């Protein structure tokens, strides 16, 4: 190893201090999966036109993507348990590269199912990355700063969303071209040639991603990372998978966290999946112009995350998320029923309220379990990402029947679930504080 680790590990797996270089390198992985997620929002809009899909069918891009997370999270956690966080990260990066490479045959075959297969393969790699990186970021330092570390890493994630949407806008969408309108003017061989040319544009951002992924993989491979796993006392063995599942199934706080994360991811993905479609329906513009509004949404997401990070140094994370949830519910109600284009701008603003969601729910849920169950617990939290497969499909189905704008109402319910979770967490912590004071 060319870059050494100089930290000391406690028995619970946390460190005496955070190794700055390793933490920054770990955080650089976060924007890589965010870029892939942002590109999905571009692909949904493009595939809907090229393959002439319903809103529900186009949302299957997210189902393939987040379905991969759901299926692979547990195997990824077993790799971590048997080896290390570092190996799981490297495996994830290699699989991610392989999925990107599949876009070459997919663009040639020009079939929707082939693209879904490529997206699913990318998701397998990203499942390894999220299962390992989210848990590792919370563990790589002092325990009292676990949530702050994960929120900082997730701030890099926000930058990845911005880069991903800009890559999609400038490398996938063509300037001045409305795909749907252009297809209506063509037929026969000309139409097929146009479709092939449009699909070829999907390759370019994935070429860039492969280059970046190779560089990050090499840097991680030559860097020594701390183990960050609880040390077994004496002859004590690590709990089996069955024992872990039994423990987690009786942990009410953990189960509440899973439901909250499912709702959060589902809401975030659903809103972002249909922001471009909402702009196209409520304004007269091309796909490339409509992509600007999703780019603005990702900027809002980044700003909202930074503000939340600051607020959490002043007030409790529960109060921050409760406030964000109340404002979010009001905003999404406006998006669902406002009679003019202002609904699009409010849909952009609501992304600022997504900022602290994933990281705070993840860290809170993980801290509700004993550290010896951390690897599997972290994987199950990642499995709740399946919400990103379910909620966009539900919203797409609603959009086909009641209208795109009105379909955003489904996300109001999701924000309500998040509000309920943090209200319960606040009550739990208040009870613990009273118990300590009376002891």
UniProtKB/TrEMBL annotation:
A single cellular component GO annotation: plasma membrane
Q: What is its main location?
A: membrane
What Gene3D superfamilies does this protein's entry cite?
MFS general substrate transporter like domains
Q: Which NCBIfam families match?
A: fucP
* Compartment(s): Cell inner membrane
Question: Which residue ranges does UniProt annotate as crossing the membrane?
Answer: 20-39, 59-80, 87-104, 110-129, 150-173, 206-225, 258-280, 292-312, 319-337, 343-366, 378-398, 404-423
Q: What Pfam families is this protein classified in?
A: MFS_1
InterPro entries named among the record's database cross-references: Lfuc_symporter_FucP, MFS, MFS_trans_sf, MFS_TsgA-like
Query: How does the UniProt record describe the way this protein sits in the membrane?
Result: Multi-pass membrane protein
Keywords, sorted A to Z: Cell membrane, Membrane, Transmembrane, Transmembrane helix
The UniProt GO MF terms for this protein read: fucose:proton symporter activity
Q: What is this protein called?
A: L-fucose:H+ symporter permease
């Amino acid at each position: 190893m060319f870059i050494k680790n100089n930290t000391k590990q406690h028995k619970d797996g946390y460190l005496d201090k955070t190794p700055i270089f390793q933490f920054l390198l770990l955080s650089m992985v976060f924007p890589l999966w965010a870029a892939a997620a942002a590109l999905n929002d571009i692909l949904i809009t493009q595939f809907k036109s090229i393959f002439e899909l319903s809103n529900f069918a186009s949302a299957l891009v997210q189902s393939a993507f987040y379905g991969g997370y759901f299926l692979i999270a547990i195997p990824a956690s077993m790799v971590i348990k048997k080896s290390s966080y570092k190996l799981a990260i490297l495996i994830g990066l290699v699989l991610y590269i392989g999925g990107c490479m599949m876009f070459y045959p997919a663009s040639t075959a020009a079939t929707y199912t082939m693209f879904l297969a490529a997206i699913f393969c990318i998701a397998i790699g990203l499942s390894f990355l999220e299962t390992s990186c989210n848990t590792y970021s919370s563990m790589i330092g002092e325990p009292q700063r676990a949530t702050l570390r994960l929120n900082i890493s997730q701030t890099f994630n926000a930058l990845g969303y911005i880069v991903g949407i800009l890559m999609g806008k400038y490398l996938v969408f063509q300037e001045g071209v409305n795909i749907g309108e252009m297809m209506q003017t063509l037929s026969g061989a000309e139409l097929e040639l146009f479709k092939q040319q449009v699909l070829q544009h999907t390759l370019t951002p994935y070429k860039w991603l492969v280059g970046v992924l190779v560089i990050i993989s090499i840097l991680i491979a030559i860097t020594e990372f701390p183990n960050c796993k609880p040390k077994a006392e004496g002859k004590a063995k690590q709990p089996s998978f069955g024992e872990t599942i039994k423990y987690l199934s009786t942990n009410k706080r953990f189960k509440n966290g899973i439901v909250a994360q499912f709702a959060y991811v589902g809401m975030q993905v659903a809103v972002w999946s249909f922001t471009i479609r909402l702009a196209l329906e409520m304004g007269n513009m091309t796909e490339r112009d409509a992509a600007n509004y999703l780019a603005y949404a990702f900027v809002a997401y980044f700003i909202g995350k930074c503000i939340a990070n600051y607020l959490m140094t002043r007030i409790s994370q529960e109060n921050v998320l409760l406030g964000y949830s109340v404002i979010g519910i009001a905003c999404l109600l406006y998006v669902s029923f406002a009679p003019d284009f202002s609904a699009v701008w409010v849909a952009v603003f609501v992304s600022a309220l997504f900022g602290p969601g994933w990281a705070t729910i993840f860290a809170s849920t993980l801290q509700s379990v004993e550290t010896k169950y951390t690897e599997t617990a972290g994987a199950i939290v990642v499995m709740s990402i399946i919400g990103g497969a379910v909620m966009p499909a539900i919203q797409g189905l609603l959009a086909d029947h009641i209208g795109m704008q009105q379909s955003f109402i489904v996300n109001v319910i999701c924000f309500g679930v998040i509000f309920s979770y943090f209200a319960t967490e606040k009550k739990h912590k208040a009870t613990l504080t009273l118990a300590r004071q009376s002891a």
